[in-house]
Amino acid sequence: PSQEALVALVGKLGVYQVRLFPLRQGRERCLLLLFSPEKLTGLLREGQTARTLAAMGYPCGSGLKALLSRLRRRCRRADFPHEIGFFLGYPYEDVMGFIQYRGRNYKWAGLWKVYGDVGRAQCLCRQYTFCQQALGQHLDGGGSLEDFFLERAE
User: What is the DSSP string of 61-73?
Assistant: First the structure.
C-alpha cells in the first residue's frame, strides 16, 4: 500500500482503539503491526520484559511511540529482531529462549518456538490462529480492515 493509504487507514482504525504501525516497507510488501495501544503498553511494561527491552537499548521510560520507533529501526536492519515476540504478545520465556538457544532446543513449535509452558503457548496459538483466520476470511471476501473492526465493535 502507498504511504497515503496507510496514513488514511491508521486514522480510520483509531476510532476502534486499534493502531497500525508500519515496521518495514518494500516495493512489493510491507510489515505492519496491528495492536491495541492499551494492551501493548501493558505487555511491554511487565517487569522482566521492560528490563530486557531496556537492556537491548529500548527507551522504556519514553512511551509506546518511542518503543515502536526503536523496533521499526531494528526491523529495517538485515537481521530480524527476535524481541519482536514481546510486541506480539509471546510469553517472555519463549522470546528469551529463542534468543538464548538461537532457535534450537525448543519444546514445541507452533506459530513460534516454545521454550516455556507448552500448554499455555498452545492455547495462545489457538487464539492467534482463530484471529488470523477470521481476519483472513474477511479480507479474502473483499472486506476491509476498517469493516472488520466495525463489525466487532457493534
Answer: TS-HHHHHHHHHH
Per-residue pLDDT tens for 44-73? Answer: 999 999 999 999 999 998 999 999 999 999
**In angstroms, rounded to a whole number, what is the distance separating the alpha carbons of residues 113 and 110?**
6
Q: Encode pLDDT of 124-146 as tens digits.
A: 999 999 989 998 899 899 988 87
d(CA 17, CA 6): 16
Query: Which strand (E) or helix (H) includes residue 31?
Result: strand 30-35
Q: How many CB atoms lie within 10 A of CB 102?
A: 9
CA dist list (Å): 21 to 43, 51, 123, 151: 17, 23, 26, 22
Question: pLDDT band for position 28 (50/70/90)?
Answer: confident
